Amino acid sequence: MKEGPDIAQIGALIGDPARANMLAALIGGRALTATELAGVGGITVQTASTHLAKLEAGGLLTQRKQGRHRYFTLADEAVARLIESMMGFAAGRGHLRHQPGPKEPALRKARICYDHLAGDYGVRMLDSLIASGSIEAVGEGLGLTEKGEGDLKCIGIDVGDLRSSRRPLCRSCLDWSERRAHLAGSLGKALLSSFLDKGWARRTAESRSILFSPEGDRQFLMLFPVDP
Amino acid sequence: MKEGPDIAQIGALIGDPARANMLAALIGGRALTATELAGVGGITVQTASTHLAKLEAGGLLTQRKQGRHRYFTLADEAVARLIESMMGFAAGRGHLRHQPGPKEPALRKARICYDHLAGDYGVRMLDSLIASGSIEAVGEGLGLTEKGEGDLKCIGIDVGDLRSSRRPLCRSCLDWSERRAHLAGSLGKALLSSFLDKGWARRTAESRSILFSPEGDRQFLMLFPVDP
DNA sequence: GCGATGCTTCGGTTACGATCGAACTATGAA
DNA sequence: TTCATAGTTCGATCGTAACCGAAGCATCGC
């Protein structure tokens, strides 16, 4: 009975509501200070500090000191995937805190998931990439095709650069609001970054939602069509 | 801060050591009674009973009454995958309770993972199926090829039957002792079942390990060769 | 230097949940 | 029927961890 990895430890880390809220906030991808995290956790800074220390000791978070601020982020993408997969699992069982899916329509439409695009627009983009033959799907896996590599070059994404990182190029990530897959991995990140760089969309201050400009919206829908 | 699925709830369910031990025992795939689960959890039956009630209320377990026994199993494969993914995550962070990987060499060699083969033999089988062109791998996804369908027919597995179930045919499952993927899904289950039916291997009473007979061992290694 | 801000550490309180003994229910066997 | 086994429910204990106020560092701006 004592064999194997200790899942109770990380389960307990995630099992506290305040800590869970902090982790959920951090899959927004941006680094947050201890005070901000105390806010999302609904607790005082003292309490948050001890929670954050535990999460860091457990290897779920890393902190970066910058002046008199301490910025916390998820330790790596594996943590984000774990949290997301638990969210997907919980959503599938109806363990929702309020409505099914994100409350605000904006969140449901487009939001950030660690560092890539999720929500309605996220699944639409992946669907379109598959339909156009840029990405092939086998089982739950995703792979970039030669055609896809060319197409991406046209919109300014050099896949060669992405390959050099150890991180997988394409990854499927289950969207818990749409209950379908969207594109993660370094390619997912690069695509979202390019939208932000082009000014098609921007992140909001306090939320995970992504706001598309009217022009960006038009461009996005044209670039990633879905046939009826 | 209140949006989204409640991961704290299931985190807390898994976060208790006694409950985590029970869940880990149940990914062995066989139904266990409350008394047996109390044993693996290292607690009395009264305590186990309350734990099991909570796990059932949380949707992680289902129970089946049979005479004066109550047999508990994981609610479905999604629970098994969640536990396994948490094990993989924990193993990657070095959150081990004792040695890295399973303690007994037998467990490391071949063990059951919910309903399919894991351990050294599990990853070997998948490697061999990919090398022979029976299964194709794209990203993290797995798909059965036409050649594979024919090959499987030869060893007595009718893929058509498997397709009728809603469960995915091929699924990749991260092996936490080998740190590599092995084959899950209904095909993984069917393959293990056939080994057991043929008498090549048998399950052990109290452990997750799978014991191959000398003849079964020979057949298995011949059927799933790996080139150097 | 000074005060203000961000965060951690300390100390003490509180509450929840894990635990078990004992009593109770249900099924099976004699 | 009676006894034994399997399991749940009740009641009470106990420990731990979450929590916050207050004090202590560290860093910034002045």
Automatic annotation (TrEMBL), chains A, B:
<dbReference type="GO" id="GO:0003677">
    <property type="term" value="F:DNA binding"/>
</dbReference>
<dbReference type="InterPro" id="IPR011991">
    <property type="entry name" value="ArsR-like_HTH"/>
</dbReference>
<dbReference type="InterPro" id="IPR001845">
    <property type="entry name" value="HTH_ArsR_DNA-bd_dom"/>
</dbReference>
<protein>
    <submittedName>
        <fullName>ArsR family transcriptional regulator</fullName>
    </submittedName>
</protein>
<dbReference type="Pfam" id="PF12840">
    <property type="entry name" value="HTH_20"/>
</dbReference>
<dbReference type="GO" id="GO:0003700">
    <property type="term" value="F:DNA-binding transcription factor activity"/>
</dbReference>
<dbReference type="InterPro" id="IPR036388">
    <property type="entry name" value="WH-like_DNA-bd_sf"/>
</dbReference>
<dbReference type="GO" id="GO:0032791">
    <property type="term" value="F:lead ion binding"/>
</dbReference>
<dbReference type="InterPro" id="IPR036390">
    <property type="entry name" value="WH_DNA-bd_sf"/>
</dbReference>
<dbReference type="GO" id="GO:0097063">
    <property type="term" value="F:cadmium ion sensor activity"/>
</dbReference>
<dbReference type="GO" id="GO:0010288">
    <property type="term" value="P:response to lead ion"/>
</dbReference>
<feature type="domain" description="HTH arsR-type">
    <location>
        <begin position="1"/>
        <end position="94"/>
    </location>
</feature>
<dbReference type="GO" id="GO:0046686">
    <property type="term" value="P:response to cadmium ion"/>
</dbReference>
<dbReference type="InterPro" id="IPR052543">
    <property type="entry name" value="HTH_Metal-responsive_Reg"/>
</dbReference>
